[in-house]
Amino acid sequence: MKENGIGGYRLGRRQFLAASALASAGLLLSGCRPEAQQASQGGGSGGSGGNFPNTPEWNFVFICHVTTNSFFVPTQYGIEDAQALLGTTSQWTGSEDSTVSEMIDAMNTAISGNADGIAVAVVDPVAFNDPIQKALDNGIPVIAYNANGEGPGTNPALAYVGQDLFQSGVEMGNRIVSLVDEGLVALFIATPGQLNIQPRIDGAKQAIEDSGANIEIQQVTTGAKITEERSRIEAWYNGHKDVAGMFAVDAGSTQGVAQVMEQFGLHDKGVKAGGYDLLPETLKLMRAQHIDFTIDQQPYLQGFFPVMQLYLYNISGGVTGPAETNTGLIFITPDTVDRYLETESRFEGDSEEQKIVQAPA
Question: What is the reported pLDDT for 162?
Answer without folding.
Answer: 97
